[in-house]
Amino acid sequence: MIKITKFGGSSVACAEQFKKVKAIIEADSGRRFVVSSAAGKRFKGDNKITDLLYLCQAHVTYHVDYLPLFTMICERFREIRDELGLTTDIETELAEMRDKLPDMTVDEIVSRGEYFTSRLMADYLGFPFIDAKDVIAINFDGTFNFDLTAERLHVILETCDRFVMPGFYGSLPDGNIRVMSRGGSDISGSILARCINADVYENWTDVSGFLMADPRVVDNPKNIEQITFSELRELSYMGASVLHEDAVFPLRERNIPIHVLNTNRPEDPGTIVQDKIAPNPKGALVTGIAGKKDFIAIEISKKNMSNRVGFVREVLSILEHYGVSVEHLPSGIDSFSVVVNKSDVKNNIYEIIARIKETMQPDVIRLTEPFALIATVGRNMNSRPGTSARLFAALGNAGINVRMIAQGSAELNIIVGVLNKDFEAAIACLYQTFAAEADEVKAQAEAN
Fold first, then answer.
1. Per-residue model confidence as pLDDT tens digits over 380-414
2. Which of 337, 340, 413, 428 could form a disulfide with 377 if both were Cys (CB 3.0 to 4.6 A apart)?
3. Nearest to 69 by CA among 80, 87, 88, 54
4. CA pair distance 94, 109, nearest whole angstrom
C-alpha cells in the first residue's frame, strides 16, 4: 500500500515534533513519500516561519533592515538541526539567500520555509530530498499540469522509492517558483497522491480529524469517523476548516481517500474522507453542523413579478457588476431575497440598493439586519423522513426564530438563517439533537 503523508506546520515546528513524525513514518512501511509544510508555531505567541518570511519580504520592499529578522529565521532552522544532531549544511544556502534576498521574488522568498524544513526532515528520516520546483508543474494561469507532474515523478521514481518533498510551491513553465495559497501544502500532498496513484493520502495535523461541530461553540464535540467529499465541501464552506478546500479536487475523480490524523495523538482514529460511502439507512442522520455569521439579505417585492421574464437575472447582473457573490436566493411568487456576505458589500450596499431601485422599480426593497447561516449536513438525510421536522422542532424548543430556509435538490444539507445573537445557541441545540441520535444509532448497531 502506498501512502502519501503530509505534515502540517505544527507537526514540524521543532525538534520534538520531528521525532513524532519519524515515529509515525517508521510505524508503517507504506509511508514512503513525505510532504512537509514550513515549521509552524512552537507555542502560543510564537511565529510561523512563513509569516516571518512574508514579513522579511516586506522589510525588503520598504527598505527596512531585514537582517535581524532573517537571522531569527536562520536560528529556527539551526536549532532544529543541532538538537537532532543532523549534518545538513544549511548555512551556505542561508548565507546565499541573505545576500540575494533583495533580488528574489516574493514567491521564492516565502517558499524557503518549506524548502529548508524539508531538507532537515529528509536528513532526519534518511530519505532523499526532492525539490517541489522539479516536480509540481504549475501553468501560468495558476492551474496545475497533472500530466507533466506525473511525467516528472515517473522519472524520479525510477531511482527513488521514497523521498521528502516540500509542499506549498511548484514551478511555472519558465522555471520560476510559484507558491500556492496559504495552506497549499495540503494541495501538494493531494497532487502527489493523484500522480503516484496512491492508495491513501494521510494529512497529519494538530487535530484528530473533523468534528461534528465547532469546539469553540460545543464542548467536546464528537469526531466524524467517515465523511464524503461532498459533505466536506458543504461543511468547509461554512467554516469547518481542517483541509485546504482545493486539496479535495485532485483526489476526488480518482476516489483516493484522505485520512486526517493527529501528529500528537497518532493512536486516534481520525477522519476518513472519500468520494463515495455506501448509503446506510440505519446510520447516523447528520454528519456535521457548521455555520458563519454576518450575512445580510436584500429583500425585493414587486406585484406580478412572476410574469416578468428576467427580473431576477437583472438584479443578479447588478450584483455581478459590483463583484458580489450571491450565497442564496430564497424566493416567493412576487418576492425574492438575495443573501450576500456582509463584508462583500460593506462599501457599496446603499449604492447597490439605489441601482436596483432605479433599474427595477420594485414596490418594496428592504435590507435585513445581519444574520448567521447554519448548515446541517448528512449523506443519510435524503433517505430518512422527518429530518426537517426534528431540526425545526429543536430550534423552536430553544426559542430560536428561523429567518431563512434553503435545501439543495440532493438533500445533502439543510441551511437555516438565524439572528447573529442566536448563532451559538442554534449550533448547540442542533448538535445536542443529532449527536444524541448518533449515539442511539451506534448503541443499536453494537447491540445487534
1. 887 778 888 999 999 999 999 998 888 876 778 99
2. 413
3. 54
4. 11
